[in-house]
Amino acid sequence: MTSIRLGEISAIEHELLLESLSDLYGRVLVVRFRGEHRSGTGGSSDARLIEAWVGFGVTLLGPDALVIDFSGLRLGGPLPRHVIDPVAPNLEEGFPLYVVCPPGARGSMAALPVEALCDSLDEAFDRVRSTGPWAIR
């Protein structure tokens, strides 16, 4: 048997954080990524790792809202939309999702919903606070 370490697949670091923003949004999951998203085949592995951690955090913690924080990520190419696939079915029901862009990298986020893009974690939190109740609660 061969042991597989995540560091062999991708050098991107990840962190799961919970923040309470209000009575309505007491469990806001922040999935934070740092490091370098590579281009080409390496970027595909990085994107799959990001998608897996987003799905893992949402499944494990069942948050009221989700913020994906890419502010510490250097992008070697565009991020594919599938990085948010774990929450895609809930977006149609109004699930609050916000994505913090790396500085100067909005163009690399073009595949993600433009209404979800934020320039800072504070902006994302403000937008969660101003979001009405999520329909599926």
Please explain how this structure is put together:
There is one protein chain. This protein has 137 residues and is α/β, with parallel strands linked by helices. Helices cover 28% and strands 25% of the residues. It has four helices and five strands; from the N terminus they run αββαβαββα. The protein has a five-stranded mixed β-sheet with strand order 1-2-3-4-5, sandwiched between helices. Strand 1 (13-19) and strand 2 form a beta hairpin. It starts with 5 loop residues before the first helix and ends in an 8-residue tail after the last helix. The mean pLDDT is 86.
Structural features:
single chain; 137 residues; alpha/beta; 5-stranded mixed β-sheet; 5 strands; 28% helix
Chain-wise SSE layout:
Blueprint: H1 6-9, E1 13-19, E2 28-37, H2 40-61, E3 65-75, H3 88-91, E4 97-100, E5 117-118, H4 121-129
Parallel strand pairs: 2-3, 3-4, 4-5
Antiparallel strand pairs: 1-2
Shape: globular
Order of helices and strands: HEEHEHEEH
Low-pLDDT segments, ≥5 res: none
Rg over CA atoms? 15 Å
Briefly note the structural class of the backbone. alpha/beta
Report how far apart the termini are: 43 Å
Strand content bin: 15-25%
| Neighbour order of strands in the largest sheet | 1-2-3-4-5
Helical proportion? 25-40%
| Record field, number of beta strands | 5
